[in-house]
Amino acid sequence: MSALVPAESDVLVIGAGVIGLSIAWRAAQQGLSVVVADPLPGHGATHAAAGMLTPIAEAAYAEREIFALGRDSLRRYPGFIEELHQVTGLPTGFRQAGTLQVAYDSDDMAMLAETRVLQESFGVHLEQLTARECREAEPMLDPSVRGGLLATGDGAVDPRLLVVALQRAAERAGARLTRQSVIEVTCAGGRVTGARLADDSVIAASWIVLAAGWESAAIAGLPAGTVPPVRPVKGQIIRLRTSAAAERSGLPPGLLRRTVRGVVRGSSVYLVPRDSGELVVGATQEELGPDTTVTAGGIWELLRDARTLVPGVTELLLTDVVAGLRPGTPDNAPLLGPSSLPGLVLATGHFRAGVLLAPVTADTVSAYLRTGIPDPIWQAFGADRFTARGSGLREASGRREPQEAATCR
Amino acid sequence: MSALVPAESDVLVIGAGVIGLSIAWRAAQQGLSVVVADPLPGHGATHAAAGMLTPIAEAAYAEREIFALGRDSLRRYPGFIEELHQVTGLPTGFRQAGTLQVAYDSDDMAMLAETRVLQESFGVHLEQLTARECREAEPMLDPSVRGGLLATGDGAVDPRLLVVALQRAAERAGARLTRQSVIEVTCAGGRVTGARLADDSVIAASWIVLAAGWESAAIAGLPAGTVPPVRPVKGQIIRLRTSAAAERSGLPPGLLRRTVRGVVRGSSVYLVPRDSGELVVGATQEELGPDTTVTAGGIWELLRDARTLVPGVTELLLTDVVAGLRPGTPDNAPLLGPSSLPGLVLATGHFRAGVLLAPVTADTVSAYLRTGIPDPIWQAFGADRFTARGSGLREASGRREPQEAATCR
User: Fold this and answer.
1) For the whole model, what pTM was predicted?
2) How many whole angstroms separate alpha carbon A115 and alpha carbon A101?
């Protein structure tokens, strides 16, 4: 009986999304014995994600620190993908074709100018494009587009392919995947000892990495003060596809050459093309609790805004509509590093940037598991930042208020 | 080997959509031995159909005759459904709550007035509603709706439920379903003898009823002049659903009490509510050959028009998007009755009205199979009407020109 003779491992990663699997891979590469627990690997927020690798897109939320973290992770991406491909031979849809941020009317132009000021204050140079230059860069853009900003270093990846490759790489490196929910974290002597799974079996582990996205808060056994203040932020997203006929006529796969982002009369939309011919259009941002329904209104707004910027999308095939739940935090920046419960490491709350932040999260968390030394880059993202501010957690998530120090039961 | 010892039956019905299964049921009830062949029963045009029972909606296409046929079929519906329910105990989603046709602007009001004149010339009385009366009848209508016409006798049925019940009823009455495509119709001595199926087996039959929708023209072995001039007319359609929360708040299932049809700035849309909470929004009408792709533009237009008439649809869950192929004919009226090949009976080309016309088609075709006497109601719908007009068939369908008399090979 596994419940009587618990399986032993160095690290139990809770959650097999892009974050959990990246950590499992890196940790296993370093010789740690790793188990990843998830009833449906890759089917949380990762499954809905578009896969944009655009650090500046997140900067509006948590400013300089999160931009720096995103830029650091973007720099790691080519090597991360190259190594993943060498190990697995599997595709990930990675490409680094840049992002074109466009403005549709004069209000949008003003917003674009503000973005540029912000970005330059971060030391990033962006090319400013005229209307004509925008259309030269992306011939499918609506003629009404007024101008744009081109970030040449940005990239994109296909998250659904990426998790398949990550799972393969993690398993090749020796990590073991168990397709079960973690019901409860267990601890003894003031430190985590492992976890109990849905089938009542127990996994003994020296470290637990909590990477279960918005569901990270739902796991039992976490002492007050260690429950991460994450909430689900719903995003509806559409997948379109260019037809074979369109591609024969010379249109680029997915209609565009690079990611296009824009604000259409105050409403944000992005379009991410892939070599496969897929064009991902996202995303709504809704605070409705754990609701993953796809609504007529959500899909209508995405199609409306996408066709305003790129009228040709009306000709594309509609292949998928889905809603996912991003893990939001009170300041929408991630929770990275040790918690107040020894042995419990947080890697959650990545909100809209989980795919972008996977390499930096995996590298730093796996190093910490080996050395016990927190990475300085985590400074702005510690779990204690909400505790220190007092009631922020309670207000933001409605969960129990954290205490100064965690105590095991 | 079934190819050597052919199965014998009185009637082979090609196609297990709402038309083919209705005929099979009625024919089997009369003591005929019936086989229905279809690789995917109920998955052609029937699967996409909304199930409106609104005779006047089709009148614009083929005028008085098709309206009379539709009204005749609508009168048969309550008995047809009652009998089906008695035999099978299965639900069909039938209800007779009427249709409200609404106008959104002054052009639409003018069109509504024309519709009223046409309908009254057919001897139909419709209630004319003011804007206020429209909103009293359907509180979820947009306040901009200018007025409407209420047809109290119209109904609706759920075609996906209906085919399940029809298949059960046909089988209970003794019909046999074979899940195979018919490859070729065979004949000898100037009359049909049966058909060859995809597995190369042969079904011997005295009568063949061609009820395969737009695919009726693709079956081999039909002599020139008997190939029905049907073409696929694509329709994209959306299924929405009210949430449990919405229904608890007192909204009717599917938001509306009855079918609402309207023209929004020249674009037609209809919304069909069901007791299950489903609201069907349709439909595009596209001449693209056998293309069943769902496009961003098609879905966007349906959502745009639906929310213009009934803004609350944006809150509904999007549960299904699908494209079907209606069997259109050169005049978009059905092809009913004997062809010039003895033993071959046509029951196809029902275009947008297959669900509405199922009872009258089934009753008259099954009577003909028993008596050999064509129903007078078929007069305007004979297969020979295109032959008589000369080149109409060739122009409309691009198929080979029919000859005066069919000869078997």
Assistant:
1) 0.86
2) 10
